[in-house]
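User: structure tokens for this one?
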Amino acid sequence: MADDAIFLVDGEDLEPLTATAFGSEAALQEALARHPELLAGAQIDADAPRRWLLIDREIGVPGEVEGAARFSLDHLFVDQDAIPTLVEVKRATDTRLRRETIGQILDYAANGLRHWPVDELRTTFERRCAAESLDAEHELGRLTGEADAAAFWQRVAEQLAAGRVRLLLVADRIPLEVQTVVEYLNEQLRAAEVLAVELTRYAGAGREVLVPRVIGKTAAATRVKRRSDQRDYEALLADADASTIELDRRLRDLADHEGLTWRTTPRARQFGGAHGSIIALYPPGEAINVLLGEIRGMGLDAEADDVLERLATITQTPLASKMPAIPARDVLANWDDFASSIIPTLLELRARAAPST
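Assistant:
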């Protein structure tokens, strides 16, 4: 890196700044946490430059539903479209950068997608903000321009369920063999985005310049992502298994018959009542999520636990406490009880949890 330099113009003189390694991996991590714009959002998406909100550093990634953390991710961000962005940081001098780190970040993504309860991520973010004397809703509003925090975190859940995450490997120098692997992965994966950010530090004469360069945005990868983005809920539903398609039909029929409300997002169909959604059907996951987070948030934990116990009788799938996922096939096998008992209970609890006006 010693021969790599940029030049500052000082009158008629040029002042060279040479590429200089970060003093430690911790210094590189701290720079990203303080200045997320170093992730070069305009290079990642020139039409809609990515903006970032840090959830937390050294965030635990569980290996099973509600299990203890098996891994520790350097940084977890979300962008303005609620896409989780997992960042792993290494210095070029770390020999693990060659191959191990690629497998590591893929492992994080695979487990995070399956086992991260979005309410836990929200709690982690709010805890960080409190520790740094920041207002969580204000920070979120600066990112999105919206005031509805619950709706944003619901979109995060949808992105996780659909596998729409961004994996970023950040280093002060990205070796050629790692660039090749990153480009290959990004061209093969439809929903997830795999990129590297080479963050070069130039220093000299008491000055410092940081220059990010995004790697992996090939033309082939862009075409793959564009085709994936164009798929909407109906297309995802058409590709789902027969149980998911049938459950969608029954839920819409129930909504029409019982006067429930429903709305469709690009990745999910949500059903509920006048006070908010209670369940969401995700075709990519072939399951519904029961939205107990807002109910628990208003102090109705005992009631939410009762619902969780009833759900546990209809599925063998481990259940998260705030957003349990029930396979569509299990809901159909217990449809009468689910439609006539569990859904009315959820509607009643959602009404009780609604803020009084």
